[in-house]
Amino acid sequence: MKLENKKAICIMSGGMDSTLGAYMVKEMGYEIIALHFNYGQRTMDKELSCFKKICDALDVKKSYVLDLDFFSQIGASALTDKSIEVPTNGVEEGVPVTYVPFRNGIFLSISSALAEKEGAEIISIGVVQEDSSGYPDCTESFIASMEKSISLGTKDETKIKIYMPLVHLSKSQIVEQALRLNVPLELTWSCYKDEDKACGVCDSCRLRLNGFKRANAKDPIEYK
User: Fold this and answer.
1) How far is the C-alpha of 137 from the C-alpha of 42, rounded, in Å?
2) What is the C-alpha separation between 37 and 14, in angstroms, rounded?
């Protein structure tokens, strides 16, 4: 059932998780306002291309693409500093070098400003805590604290909830849910390293491939 004038800001990277989140928001009847960030990541062009195709598939009427060039100046991540190699051996301990300092906190702050402007009730973000790479800004406790801060830092009449439907799902459960909702997984991208064919060996590719394997499904994207 369509909810009249109910809007949602959907942070969409072009990846599988955030795309599924957007499809879940659509199923709930919200009007999607899609938001994508170019932040100097290695696969920036590919992710933007995927985002645009996914928006078309979702029939999104309004979208924003914001450039955040300061992430490259900050560096300290293999995703934004090309002098740091993306790990491919799958044995990193602790917070991995692909962690971008406070990225989700910054994304949510900007999303909140946009949600307040647009009159959106929810912000959707595809964070995954259980089966992720150990990023501190992907935890339920962190997202809950951001929601509280957003409430304190916006107008009294602004009521924004952060929707994180995947936070306790495994990658295989994400694949299963995406298949159930007919999410066009062939349009999504997860690889940290490459833009033509997915490398298959970075942490993100490993998680994705393992998710498809455990879900007894075939990943529709090409790998090297």
Assistant:
1) 20
2) 10
Q: What is the pLDDT of residues 109-161, one digit of tens each?
A: 999 999 999 999 999 999 999 766 789 999 999 999 999 999 999 999 999 99
What is the CATH number for 85?
3.40.50.620
pTM over 0.85: yes
CA geometry: angle at 16 spanning 35 and 64, to 5°?
10
Q: Strand (E) positions, 75-206?
A: 122-124, 161-163
Asked whether 206 and 192 are in contact (CB, 8 A), the reply is no
The residue range of the domain holding 56 is 7-214
Q: How far apart are CA 56 and CA 59, in angstroms?
A: 5
